Every structure is written in structure tokens, then in C-alpha cells.
Amino acid sequence: MSQCSILERLSALDTNTVSDALDFLNLQGATYGLRPLWNCPKIIGRASTVQLGPKTDTAPTTHLITPVISAVTTDDRILVIAGGLDGISCWGDIIANASKVKGIRGTVIDGMSRDIDGSRDVGYPVYGRGVTMISARNRMVQVDSGIPIQVRGVTVKQDDYVIADNCGTVFIPAERMEDVLDLGERINRRQNIMVQEVRAGKPVSEVMHDTKFDAINKAQSSQEQGSSEVVPTFRGNPKRASAEDEELVALFADSDTPGVSDALDKLGIPGQAFNIMPLTDYKKVTVGPAFTVRYVPASNPPGSVGDFIDDVAVGDVVVIDNGGRTDCTVWGDIMTQYAGLRDIAGTVIDGVCRDVNRAIDDNYPLFTAGRWMRTGKDRVQVGGVNESVGIGKVRVEPRDIVVADANGVVIVPRARAREVAEVARKVEESEDGIREMIAGGATIAEAREKLGYHTLQRKA
């Protein structure tokens, strides 16, 4: 098979699907923590490997990575750089410009980048651990290139294949590429059918019931071959919010998480979910009663991973305790699609999600500890629903009120929701008054003094 054909086929997949294929084949390749360092596009290509290390002497050296860039002669290369140090840059805008001119498709760094705006300005994709301003000069050297390297626990060889997108970075051994592509394409077809079934109204518990996607390893289903089977029309969510749920949610309709957080502080209630952040910069506030789900490590044979969603009512927020695990996801595009169709308000996960493009495109509110492409199938299973769970160091009881926005997530105990909402309203009214006063010419000190700003969050 030609390189062009391989890359075309790989470009039709995403990291989630490729990660699933590697799982089936018992191959390593999915990495966690190597994310896009600006809003860059997906990249696919072949690895040109670079090994870096700490500088241990005072001898002058060639600038990092420049010999590898100069040696590139084809348009299918992705630079894969290992050995980066926390807080120290091993990438910058000058070498980004040089790579762009050479037709290199992008760079994956097990390390840090600086001058990331320079890479963004020329449209050069960079994936890595994070950004810094500290130069590698006199701190790091290039040790070797074109050799096998270790990237986040995965061995990457020269000419292995690379795919990176919003969910992270995956490496595919060159010698197994055809196996991975064949299986990935079957997985992709099967997942597309599952999405169609969900859109048509089939319960997600039926759609996602085939353990380890057994159907993928069988002949194509009749649906894949154009079956004329009639699928049901989606009928919405029969589970409606209670009158009390609607009343409590309405109390927070004009609030945001900073105001509610201040009210919780004033009342001495712990409710701010630590390190649970929005998938994107949501413009609206998500409010709803918590439908709690607890995940545990998978048994043998593994149990259910997503059947609970058929029991979630309109307006609920799914709150998933996966113990803060970042090595496997518990939420993907099928769950996003189904939740949106059933008017579920959003999802909060103490763990990671995948298929983030679906959630972003659908504007489905997701709040998580991160994103990664590796499936939770056969790694975790549902251990319980509608019981006490922990989210970002906060205890959440079933039907507590969840308030989430671009700032994060807060949990309001249901029994104290009216009290919290009233204090939040007073806090926000005081802050509105301060804004009006300073707009009218008052100093911030005068406005704060008059409206008692320093007592707003203080415990009563």
C-alpha cells in the first residue's frame, strides 16, 4: 500500500478510534498529556524522532532540532521529540517557521514549548505537555535522532505513524499499520451505525451493549450492507423533572458559579469542585439536579458502562465519579449525542472524556478533569447510581443542585439550596452596585466600603 493511501485512510479516523484499535490488538500507542498547545488542526504523518537531554558541560552546541529539520526531504514528516524537562522549552517560533518552510506537518513534544504564538501565527501545529517562557539554551542538548525514543511510556521508532487531535496523541507501529487501519475502519463504521441508532431513538443500553464491540470482528451487519430495516422515530425523554426540581433550578437561573461560590463560603458549605473545568468557554450557566454515577474498576467479565443514561430525567446533570482517573474515559460522542436528544442539561466528570469535537459542535456542556482518547470499556464499569459520590474533593448527594459555567463547577446541597440561592442573590446585587458606582465615578475603595464588599464572602 502506498504511503499516500495509508495517510489518507488514517486522516479519516480520529485518535479515539485508533486508540480502540490498538486496544483490540494489544498494542501500546495512546499517550496521555500531549495536547494541542494552540487551537491547531489534527495532524497525521510519519515520525522523525529526536532525543534530547540535559546539558552537562560548557561546550557550544548546535541549536536543538535544527539538523533534523534540515534533513527532511518529504512532506509526510512529524517531528517527535523526547526528553523534555518540566518548565524548560525545547520548541520556539524560529524553528516553527523553519519547519513550516520545509513542509513538516507538525511537532509532538514530550516537553514544553515557548513562543507558542509564533507557531500559531504561521499555522504550525504543536502538541506537548504545556508552555513556558524559559529557554533551552545552556540547559538542554540534542542527544540523537532517528532512533527509538520513549514518549510518555510508549516506544516510538523512526517512521512510525502519528495521529494527534483535540483528544491527544497516538503513535502506531509502522509494521502493524495495515492491521490498525483495517480494524480502525471497522470500528468507525460500527460507531457510525451506533450514532444513527441513537439518533433514531433506540435506547443507548441496547446500542452500546455489544461487549468489546464483538460485532466489529464479525461480518458486516445487515445495516452496514444497506438493510432496509425500519428504525423507530425518536420520541424524546419520557422522564420529566419534578415540580420541586424545577423550582430549585429556577432559583439559580440568574446566578453564576462565582456568586454561588461566595454564598457557599459565607454559609461555610464546601461545594467548589476542585480541578473540574469546562470543555470550552461556555457562555451560559448550566443548572440541574445531580444524577450521580459511580464507576469502579472492571470485573471479569466486565459490566455496564453507560446503560444508566436511559434513567436520567430532562434537565438533570449527570455527575460521574471515576475517582479522578485520567487513564481511561467514561464519556464519548454516543453518550453526548444521546444526552442532547434527551434534553439532559450537562455532564460533570471526575475523570476524562473523549470525542470532544462532538460535544463542542453540539454545544453540549461537559465539565471534566481532562480529555483523553482511550476507552473505558473493559477498564471500568458502573458501580452504582444515585448514591453519594465524590467530585473534585466535594461530596455530591443525588439530586443536589449543580451549577456549572466557564469558571468551573459548584455543588449546592439540596436541603440548603434556597438559603444558598438567597445569599448568592444578595452577593450579586452588591457586586452589581459596586460596578454601577465605579462606572459613575466612585473609587473602588469608596464603592466597596459603602456596599460592604469585604463582608460579602465572610462567614455569618
UniProtKB/TrEMBL annotation:
UniProt-recorded Gene Ontology molecular function terms: metal ion binding; methyltransferase activity
Disordered: annotated span: 219-238
Residues the record lists as binding substrate: 332-335, 354
Positions that bind Mg(2+): 355
Membrane spanning residue stretches: none
Domain of life: Eukaryota
Biased composition (Low complexity): 220-229
Sorted UniProt keywords: Magnesium, Metal-binding, Methyltransferase, Transferase
Gene3D superfamilies: Ribonuclease E inhibitor RraA/RraA-like
Protein name: Demethylmenaquinone methyltransferase family protein
Organism (species): Penicillium cataractarum
